[in-house]
Amino acid sequence: MRILAIESTCDETACAIVDDARIVRSNVVASSSELHAVYKGVVPEIASRAHIENILPVVREAIDQAKTNFDEVDAIAIAHRPGLIGSLIVGLTAAKTLAWSLGKPLIGVDHVAAHLYSVQLSRLAAELAPPVSLPAIGLVCSGGHTAIYLVHDWHDIQLLGKTIDDAVGEAYDKVGALLNLSYPGGPVIDKLAQQGDPTAIKFPRASLGKESLNFSFSGLKTAVLYHVRGHAGREREASSLSEKGIIDVCASFQAACVDVLITKLKRALKQTNAKSIIVGGGVSANRGLRAALSKLPVKVHVPDFEYCTDNAAMIGGLAHVLLERGASTSLDLDASPASAIRATA
Ligand code: KG4
Ligand code: ZN
Question: From 272's CA, which of 26, 37, 150, 324 has a CA 20 to 30 Å away?
Answer without folding.
Answer: 324
